[in-house]
TrEMBL record:
PROSITE patterns linked to this entry: INSULINASE
Localization terms from the record: Mitochondrion
Protein name: mitochondrial processing peptidase
Organism annotation: Triangularia verruculosa
Gene3D superfamilies: Metalloenzyme, LuxS/M16 peptidase-like (3.30.830.10)
Catalytic activity field: Release of N-terminal transit peptides from precursor proteins imported into the mitochondrion, typically with Arg in position P2
Cofactor dependence: Zn(2+)
Length: 474
């Protein structure tokens, strides 16, 4: 049920039908023309935003609530509360028992799910168009009337503790949690989403209800619809079911702290465990926020560095200069460049896995040498390749109503507006090799880095040696 990243298991939406009897027989294979789909938004009196992308020929819809509150809105003592609440949302309300809730969803053939990230909590449902009103009723019920019974809390406590144990076995998750913890030390953004085990064991119903009261307010929530639900219909449902939401969050200490600009701290954390056969290393500089003018430039720069996986058949031909060096010298099992954004900061970097333990220092050196190359010698050809890959990735990720709803909700919650795919494409097309080099000189050249390393990492040089590679002249 829970997902620890802002990434959904996007399902394929059903395609719309052609225009039936009104279409002449000689054009039976044609589909009706429709104008470009637009995102419509309406703000209710209490501040709740309703946003939709209506597709008149879609037979299914995704509706959901995107909330500007995740683990960042917690305190050290309550860390894990947002994720705990996500688990309890489906365990019964004052109107529906857990069994009634499950049967209602099952009888519609709908799908109800939720996830928590560092800055957002999301509850959403996928269903046939005619079942959308019932899904919105269920969503409002679990958001406003969850019973949070002590028996359910105790059952989910054990479930979350087991989930925490499973997460600790996933090295990528562990490395990225430690990367956040060291880059944003003693700050809300540095906490994990699940929270420490002692918190999971101690969270009470009082803390759960307080989190809802302090964070589930209309000014921080966006009701999203994508597919065959008309905008006016969803606005009517929102006015019916959510008009009673508090309009503004109380400015508690936790709220004020969550809105304070996060400070990136150059530092490292290392967990050496020689029983792990690989070295798992993440290195990052401070990246860009969702609203940063360089947001898409950062993504194109990330695409230039690229990804690599030795197990893939096209491993020798994955496009980027770094992947060629890594493959030729067998330096890594895989690597993944990333650009992770938050409301006021971000992490831009690379995550590497290698079983060539004698050459860990070479892997890090060549990776950082590629970073510094971006500051001075990027070619137009590799920029065009990266732009094409990025545009394709964005468009392919919008296949299905759930994916579209996710895009709408994420953009509006984080930036206040949704850029259309066409607008995004135009912004990316305008990026040049000069823009990439300016971005690299500003955000990469001679900048502090955060390092997280787990496993057989004896060969990883000390922080000062790695930091010195950030200003290497080629």
């Amino acid at each position: 049920m829970a997902s620890r990243r802002l990434a959904l298991n996007l399902a394929q939406g059903l395609r719309g039908r052609a225009g039936g009897l009104s279409v002449p027989v000689r054009r039976g294979l044609a589909t009706p023309h429709s104008p470009a789909l637009k995102t419509q938004t309406t703000t209710l009196k209490n501040g709740l935003t309703v946003a939709t992308q209506y597709s008149p020929y879609a037979q299914t819809s995704t509706v959901g609530m995107w909330i500007d509150a995740g683990s960042r809105a917690e305190t050290d003592e309550t860390n894990g509360t947002a994720h705990f609440l996500e688990h309890l949302a489906f365990k019964g309300t004052s109107k529906r028992t857990q069994q009634q809730l499950e049967l209602e969803i099952e009888n519609m053939g709908a799908h109800l799910n939720a996830y928590t990230s560092r800055e957002n909590t999301v509850y959403f449902a996928r269903a046939l168009n005619e079942d959308v009103p019932q899904c919105v009723d269920i969503l409002q019920d679990i958001l406003q009337n969850s019973k949070l019974e002590e028996s359910a809390i105790e059952r989910e406590r054990d479930v979350i503790l087991r989930e925490s144990e499973e997460v600790e076995k996933q090295l990528e998750e562990v490395v990225f949690d430690h990367l956040h913890a060291t880059a944003y030390q003693q700050q809300p953004l540095g906490r994990t989403i699940l929270g420490p085990r002692e918190n999971i064991r101690d969270i009470t119903r009082t803390e759960l209800t307080n989190y809802i009261k302090n964070n589930y307010t209309a000014d921080r929530m966006v009701l999203v619809g994508a597919g065959g639900v008309p905008h006016e219909q969803l606005v009517e449902m929102a006015d019916k079911y959510f008009a009673g939401l508090p309009s503004k969050s109380p400015e508690s200490a936790a709220y004020l702290l969550s809105k304070r600009k996060a400070d990136f701290i150059g530092s490292d954390v290392r967990i050496r465990d020689d029983t792990i056969p690989t070295a798992n290393i993440a290195i990052a500089v401070e990246g860009v926020s969702w609203n940063d003018p360089d947001y898409f430039t950062a993504l194109v720069t990330q695409a230039i560095v690229g990804n690599y996986d030795k197990a893939l058949g096209n491993a020798p031909h994955q496009g980027s200069k770094l992947s060629g060096i890594v493959h030729k010298n067998d330096l890594a099992t895989s690597y993944m460049s990333f650009s992770t954004s938050y409301s006021d900061t971000g992490l831009w970097g690379i995550y590497m896995v290698t079983d060539n333990l004698a050459n860990v220092d070479d892997l890090v050196h060549f990776s950082l040498r590629e970073w510094t190359r971006l500051c001075s010698s990027v070619t137009p050809a590799e920029v065009e390749r990266a732009k094409a890959q990025l545009k394709a990735s964005i468009l392919l990720s919008l296949d299905g109503t759930s994916a579209v709803a996710e895009d709408i909700g994420r953009q509006i919650v984080n930036t206040g507006r949704r850029m259309s795919p066409g607008e995004i494409e135009r912004v990316i097309d305008a990026i040049t090799d000069k823009d990439i080099m300016e971005f690299a000189n500003k955000k990469i050249w001679d900048q502090d880095i955060a390092i997280s390393a787990v496993g057989s990492i004896e060969g990883l040089f000390d922080y000062s040696r790695i930091r010195a590679d950030m200003s290497r002249n080629l």
